[in-house]
Amino acid sequence: MTQSVCIGIDVGSVSTNLVVIDDCGQVLHSMYTRTHGQPIAAIQDALRTIGEELPADIQLLGVGTTGSARQLAGVIAGADVVKNEITAHAVATSAAIPDVQTVIEIGGQDSKIIILRNGVISDFAMNTVCAAGTGSFLDQQASRLGIPIEEFGEIALKSQNPVRIAGRCTVFAESDMVHKQQLGHKREDIMYGLCQALVRNYLNNVGRGKDIQPVVAFQGGVASNIAIRRAFEETLGTRVVVPPNHDCMGAVGAALLASEEMKRRRKRYGFARTSFRGFNCSKLNFQASSFECPHCTNHCEVIEILLAGKPVARWGARCPRWDIVETSAEEAVVS
Fold first, then answer.
1. Residue of 56 and 226 predicted with greater confidence
2. Most exposed among 5, 43, 178, 206, judged by the fewest C-beta atoms under 10 Å?
3. Topology of the domain comprising 286-332
4. What is the pLDDT of residue 333?
5. Are 4-88+249-282 and 99-242 the same fold in CATH?
């Protein structure tokens, strides 16, 4: 029996996540890869790889993209839905934990908080310039301590007397950590102190002024760290739930949104044809460039995506001067 699926793609500055879900919203396949500053190549490679893992008779109903490079991913993949990270994460978490009221998401270089009431987003915030409340903060300190980041949480939980680390800034935190080492504090006490510092920084910046109520969900790559989870529970005084597929919730949300959109189209029009370009889109020659529009004082920076030398998408302008009709799936699919 042919299985119907939807794909979600979440492209960020550090990682590119791709998931495949079935009609019931269950994740069948997931893939994580480093973006390495080359989102086009990362997206194409991920689609080619996941395409090789799926059965040949799979029926793809729709594709959704999210993340900081969601528009670019949408053009490359031929997405049916392109949504921001806040919406995607909220949809995925609500599906996994229906009574969730607070979503804490911490990734490699960014973090966010989403406040939900009765399943509707009522407030949110994202980090701005400081990385002290993100995964890169712990990665740097783990490297300095000579500890694999995968073992960080387990070792940190052995702490009996955690030290207080000045975590308002990565520079100050590292300096304070070195000072604590020189004073002879145990490694696990310093490590759990770093976890507490990350939690304080997150709550004092991203979570400042937010009405954090249970149920609290914790997701993103950093949610794999059990010591960070414990530090959040101690600080907030409530249980913190890590949902399944916590490290790719943005992609899960994008896939769920694509599924809902295609169902809406089928109900309204009687059919719904995806714009997906095909798993072999890695063979397509995409090029990204930008230019400054000289036609008014706004001087908009317009991003342009070329496919085989032909413009297929532009964004960044404040007026419709540079709008173009996207290339149809039939023109772009590679057989």
1. 226
2. 178
3. N-terminal domain of TfIIb (2.20.25)
4. 41
5. yes
